[in-house]
Design goal:
Strand order of the largest sheet of chain B: 6-7-8-3-9-10
Order of helices and strands of chain B: EEEHEEEHHHHEHEHEEH
Distance between the termini of chain A: 24 Å
Oligomer: heterodimer
Strand content of chain A: under 5%
Helix content of chain B: 25-40%
Structural class of chain B: alpha/beta
Number of helices of chain A: 10
């Protein structure tokens, strides 16, 4: 295989894998004669997708902005708490167990509480998305700060740098690749958060659409919603990867610099 | 005149319940502008001496003084270079070299407004070590020898009175290492800072130092202080002359005694 064909094949691989997956699904539905309510054929899902594109787009937009807003809040809060925990062993000792306990609580359990507090709608979705994507950001930023080479700290100490200076000159830049790596995980979690909230107690968004379609036994629409979430998730993930590569070029060493 | 003084300094490490005596009763007297080397068998506490002098580790007993002041916490404005270049991968070479200027007074206060002046100064320093063309490269784009050269520049840019070198050439190949001895000597002859070099390379110690201290096996004690009165500048050729070789043998014999003991 020449370099050129190899590159083309590499680019084509994910699409081919997806095509194979959909074809196998389609054939399985036909061969086993599965009822549509159980598992609609992909072609049927696609038809519904096109037919109901207006409502899908509107509800996608609801899910997307609540997710991204919650995610943005999680980034701000997560970075601040992560820096605090990573920079101070005392804060680490105090807050880490609490953080783990907090993360262990299934987020679906807090949605009813949120509904009591803030009512139905966008707000519980934003909060759930934020809360669920907060944890990986905190942990990663803290790890980046806590794993600075001791010799680097020696060099700065012997120059007379204050703790704040060490944090600013070494800690923060060093934590950046960790932060961006966590964003890829966090954005997908944020979608889970907002969709859970919409499903449990929403009146808009893809989660709500899927739930109401499911209640009407409208499996194709439910699956169309599922596809829509997957597409948004992949798109946002790609955005995070792009930002990561731009912001922390140095962490990838020679690979991207040529 | 004593610039760095160690008087009966001991250091005990405590790791859990175990205690290790790393350095015992060390007394050293380093004059201003003197370049000393500390050699000894591996694990004898050579690096401990460095950390004690700079105050990164507090002595268990005895006193450490630098410039007449007793060292109790990390002293400021020292130049340091380790075996690992510890350059920041997110900064270009020039920005790495400029790091001390962003931290050490009075440069810190002036840095933003007089940046061009500092850049020129850093470029001049990079030129003396042959790195002018690599100022805008990142550390991971440089070879090991080049990284160590930038590391030396970073250690010297703020013109520290005291330069601490912990096996800075240890990880380099023989040719690069010997070349950097010359670079180091030229820098010292020009700026006349007080230098403390920790190394296990006896030729390196004799080439660079005015006085070589030999340490015993753990717990490290200073068992010999040898003045090197060879004329400067020393050259690579001079390292093969009888006078030089005799000193290296003398030091080697002393260290062998330690290994045999």
């Amino acid at each position: 295989m020449t370099d050129r064909t190899r590159r083309i094949v590499t680019l084509a691989m994910p699409w081919m894998a997806m095509a194979v997956f959909l074809i196998v699904w389609e054939l399985a539905c036909i061969v086993f004669d599965l009822p549509e309510i159980l598992l609609p054929r992909p072609t049927k899902v696609f038809t519904v997708f096109v037919q109901r594109i207006d409502i899908l787009l509107a509800f996608c937009w609801d899910t997307l902005w609540t997710t991204v807003l919650g995610f943005a809040i999680a980034i701000v809060g997560g970075v601040m708490l992560g820096v605090l925990i990573g920079a101070s062993p005392l804060v680490y000792a105090g807050l880490y167990p609490l953080l783990i306990a907090f993360n262990a609580v299934p987020k679906v359990a807090i949605v009813p509480i949120l509904m009591i507090w803030v009512g139905v709608g966008a707000l519980p979705a934003i909060i759930t998305a934020g809360v669920i994507s907060f944890f990986p950001i905190v942990v990663n930023v803290a790890t980046g700060l806590a794993t600075i080479e001791p010799e680097m700290i020696d060099v700065l100490n012997s120059l007379g740098a204050s703790r704040f200076e060490i944090l600013r000159k070494v800690g923060i830049p060093r934590a950046m690749p960790y932060l961006f790596a966590s964003l890829k995980v966090a954005i997908t979690l944020a979608f889970i958060g907002s969709v859970i909230s919409e499903t449990v107690g929403g009146n808009r968004g893809i989660g709500f659409l899927m739930l109401s379609a499911g209640a009407r036994n409208d499996a194709p629409t439910t699956f169309a919603g599922l596809f829509a979430i997957a597409i948004m998730g992949v798109a946002m993930y790609a955005v995070c990867v792009l930002v990561e590569k731009r912001m922390t070029r140095w962490a990838f060493r020679g690979q991207l610099v040529s | 005149m004593t610039f760095v003084g160690l008087e009966a300094v001991s250091l005990t490490y405590r790791l859990g319940k175990e205690t290790t005596l790393a350095l015992a009763d060390a007394t050293m007297d380093i004059g201003k502008g003197e370049f000393v080397a500390v050699v000894g068998p591996s694990g004898c506490g050579k690096s401990t001496v460095m950390k004690l002098v700079t105050g990164l580790l507090p002595a268990t007993s005895g006193t450490v003084t630098v410039a007449g002041k007793r060292v109790t916490r990390p002293i400021k404005g020292v130049g340091m270079a380790f075996q690992n270049p510890t350059l920041m991968p997110w900064r270009t070479t020039i920005d790495n070299v400029l790091l001390p200027m962003e931290i050490v007074e009075p440069h810190k206060r002036r840095f933003r407004r007089h940046r061009a002046e500092y850049v020129a100064k850093a470029m001049a320093l990079l030129k003396t070590v042959g790195l002018s063309d690599f100022a805008d490269k990142y550390p991971w784009q440089l070879s090991g020898g080049m990284q160590q050269r930038s590391n030396l520049c970073r250690a010297l840019i703020h013109e520290p009175e005291l330069l601490m070198l912990d096996e800075p050439f240890g990880a380099l190949d023989a040719f690069t290492r010997e070349e950097l001895w010359g670079v180091m000597q030229a820098l010292w002859l020009e700026k006349r800072f007080t230098g403390v070099l920790v190394t296990h390379d006896l030729r390196e110690a004799v080439y660079l130092a005015d006085t070589v201290y030999v340490m015993s096996r753990r717990p490290g004690r200073i068992v010999m202080a040898r003045t090197i009165d060879l004329p400067r500048p020393r050259t690579l050729a001079s390292t093969f002359e009888p006078a030089f070789v005799d000193i290296v043998h003398e030091l080697r014999d002393r260290i062998h005694q330690e290994h045999a003991a």
